Amino acid sequence: MKKKFLFVLFVASLGLLSCEKNDDNKYADYLVARPLKVSMAEFKNGVDVIAPKPVEESGKIYAYQNYIFVNDKYRGVHVIDNTDPSNPKKISFIKIAGNVDISIKDDYLYADSITDLVVLDISDINNITIVNRLDNVLRDNVVWPAEADIFESENIDYENEIIVGWETVTERRLISEYEKNILRGDVFALAETANDASVGQGGSLARFKIVENYLYAVDSHNINVFNIEDLENPQDLEDVYAGFDIETIFNRGQHLFLGSMRGMYIYDISSPATPTFVSEFQHGTACDPVVVDGDYAYVTLRGGNFCGATESGLFIVDISNIGNPELKISYPMDGPYGLGIKDEKLFVCDGDSGLKVYDKTDVENLVALNHFENINTFDVIPLENSLLMVGEDVLYQYEYLESDIALMSTLQLN
Fold first, then answer.
1. Strands 214-218 and 201-202, how do they pair?
2. Residue 129's CB: how many other CB atoms inside 10 A?
3. Buried (b) or exposed (e) across 357-387, using 16+ Cβ within 10 A?
4. Tens of pLDDT, residues 342-358
5. Which residues contact 51 (CB under 8 A, 6 or more apart)?
6. In what order do the strands lie in the sheet with 48-50?
7. Is the per-residue pLDDT at 196 higher than 90?
8. What domain of life (predicted)?
9. Of 87, 362, 402, 408, which residue is most buried, by most CB within 10 angstroms?
10. Average pLDDT in the 374-387 region?
11. Within 13 Å and on the Cβ side, how many CA atoms surround 384?
């Protein structure tokens, strides 16, 4: 009787394994985004300066004088003393709910807090103070995690809560659930070179850009224009509609270059309060930062997930005729994010494939100088004397060599 019972158990277990094996075809791994929520009261009173803390999810970087500012996605900004680049030190954390971008001029830091613009005085880096907050001036400033496959946004009390950002985790989900979300529309569709020593420097993923007395902040549809001649009291001017899925902004001279999921848009700011459209370069749907040097714009396209179906790559666009940009050449990449230029060196953060360094003397024949593999790369800023790069919770600094770069220091942010 006991043997018969064991045999029945064995047969039943085979059946279960068979079902699990068959069911396995119904599942896949997806990146799921869940909202980070705070109360309305906490959001409006959520700016504070506290002691250094571990980063939860590193974002963009910004350099100003001897300091580096590293965004902690949707949570605020880590302040790092970089007086000694071989030994950078975290000194404080600025809590700003929903923050992803900053820009600095003459010791005044401008930061987004979802739809609000916050102004801080950082003249005493050890005693940072909040001097102004402009409510609801960044009206379409909603940042979705482009890499996510599924968004979960149920059970939100919209009268008393606000979504300040998203956390993402990889989970095994039913393929049918993902397909239903796509059909239902649950996947929401919605660096620069500093010429003025008093203005800081961001990377190619920046959405804030200061040009002289104006701050330009792009959201998903518009160029938000602010007159900051009175640094403490920005004037919110008329927004300029720029299209769909605007992601990044870069400035060269009298032109703004906007990177979007659909292409690159060029705007003239010779009348700085009213940017005017000049031309565009279209490409397939993809996430798209841009930097400009000489007669060329360098655009990285990242396909997949929310970014679209376009294959990833580096596009070099001829802008010698600013009114008619044309593709010069493209190079395949794996999954690029930010990029930067210093003299004839081109730096590309190719996601999990690492940091790639090229000689761009001949754009039609890029020469690979180095490839820093086995690191995650996100955003890069080529400074005058060193290169800053942020990856997954690590800040890297490199020194320039004649035909290469060499690692100077790393700082664990978590």
1. unpaired
2. 11
3. bbbbeebeebeebbebeebbbbbbbbbeebb
4. 999 999 999 999 999 99
5. 92, 93
6. 48-50, 89-95, 76-81, 67-72, 58-64, 201-202
7. no
8. Bacteria
9. 408
10. 94
11. 8
Global pTM value: 0.81
Distance of CA 244 to the CA centre of its chain: 17
The one-letter amino acid code at 150 reads I
The C-alpha atoms of residue 133 and residue 147 are separated, in whole angstroms, by: 31
Place of tokens 């001097």: 131
Provide the residue count of the chain. Answer: 414
What residues form DSSP beta bridges with 165? 36
* Contact (Cβ atoms closer than 8 angstroms) between residue 295 and residue 312: no
d(CA 13, CA 10) in angstroms, rounded, equals 5
31-412: CATH class? mainly beta
Residue listed under structure tokens 């830091």 = 109
Q: Do 161 and 153 form a contact (C-beta atoms < 8 A)?
A: no
Which among 385, 281, 285 has a CA at the least distance from the CA of 324? 281
What percent of the chain lies above the pLDDT cut of 90? 62
Domain map of the chain by residue range? 31-412
